[in-house]
Amino acid sequence: MENTQVNLEDIDLNDLPLNTDPAMSVGDVLSLTDGVYFCIKDRDSVFLWVNENFARLVGQRQQDIIGTRDSRAAHVAHDKEVMASGIPLLNFHETIQVPTENGDLTDLEIVTQKGLLRKKGGTEIIGITVCFAERFPAAAQEADDLIERLHMVPTGIGGYLAPGLTGDFTLQPDALPPRFDGTRGIYSANYFLLKAGEFLQLHSLNQDEQWFFHQGSAIRLHAFSEQGVYSTVTLGSDMAQGQFFQGVAPHGQWFGAELLGPGYALVSCSLAPAWNKTDSGKPTPEQIEALKDSFPEQAAILELLR
Prior knowledge:
The protein is of the alpha+beta class. The protein has seven helices and 18 strands.
């Protein structure tokens, strides 16, 4: 590649072709930058430009997106908040839904930078720039590294487990409800990791199990009570999308979990009193069918978690 001398004072730097072979524009670079998704929207959330990576991620062509209005109400509202504040937003963790190869939608955890698009030669805000990347681009490898580093082992009912903290005080049987047989430690905690394509199968516990989200994709708990009540909570880091850092699987209820996005989820689970292997139970095939009869609207998820 031959270097050429250019008098930068005589040209608009925004029109300067890059000294590559062949020459590239800034638009060429932004479209081809690996792992970076970029779009520009006006104040009315009409796409002024998107790069090829963005179009490919949402399953469309650039020309099919440019000139259309962003239809995602939550994202439009958030863009307007940033523009109204006049302050760029950096390193913002959020969740978006993207299409899969089979046409379904999956959650993707991203890190977003939102800049302000100002009128040329002035300070008036006329739109917004959005640049984001996957929060866990090498999620499968990260999951394997965590399993190794935390010395996690398969649970036998889905996912991986590693013991965490325990208390040094023992509770006697007369201090416990009748459903517990024998003594128990005052509490126990463990790490739990669920990888993409896996499910935590239905089971029940004598204790309430508190869940604390650490990192990865969002994970959803499903619980089914004997009184015919179905409850669910989504654990994750995107509170704007209705996710929570904490959740509870109530004692005596059948519960399981599914991953909502790619990669993995890492959580901690805490039980008081401490867990003992006699505190867990799995439903029989007959009980699964009875649950389907009691919860027909959740039959599909019950089949996944059986």
